[in-house]
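QA checklist item 7 of 12: single-chain prediction sanity check.
[x] sequence parsed
[x] length recorded as 306
[x] structure emitted
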Amino acid sequence: MHFTLIGIPQQDGAAQPGCEMGPSALRCAGLAPALERLGHNVRDAGNLAPRPAPAVSHPNPALRALPEVAAWVETLADSAYRESADAVPIFMGGDHALSAGTVSGIARRAADEGQPLFVLWLDAHTDFHDLASTESGNLHGTPVAYFSGRPGFDAFPPLPAAVPPENICMMGIRSVDPAERRALSEAPVQIHDMREIDEVGMAPLLRAFLARVAAAGGRLHVSLDVDFLDPAIAPAVGTTVPGGASFREAHLVMEMLHDSGLVSSLDLVELNPFLDERGRTAHLLVDLTASLMGERIMDRRTRSFA
């Protein structure tokens, strides 16, 4: 397969600084060599820089860095559309606000090619605020509402193609604000929180979603937030929520995604190397990406952090 690595040193959507170092950490942890060892062709397109911030505003006084995030969304949508023409783009973030741009660009590509787009959202949070409902003002809590076509985003670039809410599957959810809960009650997003995963298991829930994607002849975008993982194994994130996916649950998800052959683009987001322990989380993200792209459990390498 052909992969394009795209660095997105964006941290305007989060309160905790450090996500801008995420792309460098993933490179240092060996993301490109890990994919090349599997026989893939890898091109590193370097880091993107946002366009000049537009003169946009909103009545919500809590919003942080709205013009800067709007500039990133436009830049990333164009990049995602362009880079998804003949390769699998891997977007290395950066906070999760970047997905407002990456997913909207991929949605435009899918619409041009006559394919329905599905999104697998691996996250502790639903990120379903609009610009008026967020109380923290941190725009990494808004991308799903934006790319699924919710109203209230006049300050963001016009959406070329929305992802139907019924085509979105969230797994690992365990922190939802009241405003998001109300909005989600009106939207047919498929949500599997950690209690359901504990009761039913990761595999049958994911298998059912992948069967829907395959039956529709769909294109699948995966957005992996570090806080999908339990902070005991992935500490390098500014939004830790206890009780996340275990090491084996996360690898199982990636191995099943590889087996499906459906994944056409990937976000790796919210990695904050400033909060990491000797590169532990960055290495785990590289290992998970390798599982997604074909590394078998029998091929695991032993890694020492001593």
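[x] summary fact logged: Residues 66-83 form the longest helix (18 residues).
[ ] second reviewer sign-off
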